Each structure stands twice: as structure tokens, then as C-alpha cells.
Amino acid sequence: MANVRGRGKVGDVVMIDLGNESFGYGRVLLEPTMAFYDLRSREMVAAREVVKAPVLFTIWVLNKAIKSEKWEVIGNLPLEDHLKAEPKFFKQDMLSKKFFIYDDVKNIPATREDCIGLERASVWEANHVEDRLRDHFDDVPNKWVESMKLPEA
């Protein structure tokens, strides 16, 4: 597996302490990307079982997140093909209000409609990821997601 600067290895499965005696799970992809699973547990779940769960979201995460005391590497598994592809994110120029899709290393001009279903290009802190997972499992809106939503037409 390829080393990932300062945050483990590609394929590492992490268990994230969400408080209230529950855990969420993520996976290290190509830097700085991580996938997070639609799985919450009260006890540690084996890495092989974690990766069978659906991916909830894929975002950029700060390297230091995996070193958080609340994030523990519980295994390493080769990435499935669908996790090897670089995800696309949307951006919006704050002055011109024009949209772009960030694809690997370039910005591609886009319409608002092209951006529907994409995450906003942003690098997340560990505590914000934890909030997002906790809010998802509690079925409440997440303030970080809400603040970065695609604006209404």
C-alpha cells in the first residue's frame, strides 16, 4: 500500500468515537480524500465488515484527523475500484458566482445543475467530520453541511 503523508496508509479503516458510546467508520483514500460509511456501532466492527456498508460521503480531510485520539486505525484493506477514482467536487467563485467542478487538478466551468449531488470543495477537520456523522445518525441537519450547500437557483 502507498504511504499517506502523516496519516497512515491508503486503505486504512478507521473507527471514530462519536461519543454516547457509539462509533462511526471511515477509510483513507488517496490524499487528502477519505470515505465515510453509513454504519454506526456500539462496539468495534471488523474492518472487513465495515467496508461492506454503503459509503455515506467522500470528502477531503486534514491529514492530522487520523491522528486524533478519537480516530483509531482498525485494519487495512485494498481499495475497491469505485474508491480508487478521484471524486469530483464543486466550487463557486464568490465574486462572479460562477460554478466549477474540481476534477483532479483542474476547475471545469459548470452550471449549477452540473453541481447537484456533489460535495463543495473543502477540507474538513476531524471534529467537523465527527459532528457530521453524529448528526446523520441522529437524523438532524448538520450545520457544516448546511453552510456549504449548493445555493438555491
TrEMBL record:
Pfam family, one: Imm26
Domain of life according to the entry: Bacteria
InterPro entries the UniProt entry points to: Imm26
Protein name: Immunity protein 26 of polymorphic toxin system
Organism encoding this protein: Paraburkholderia antibiotica
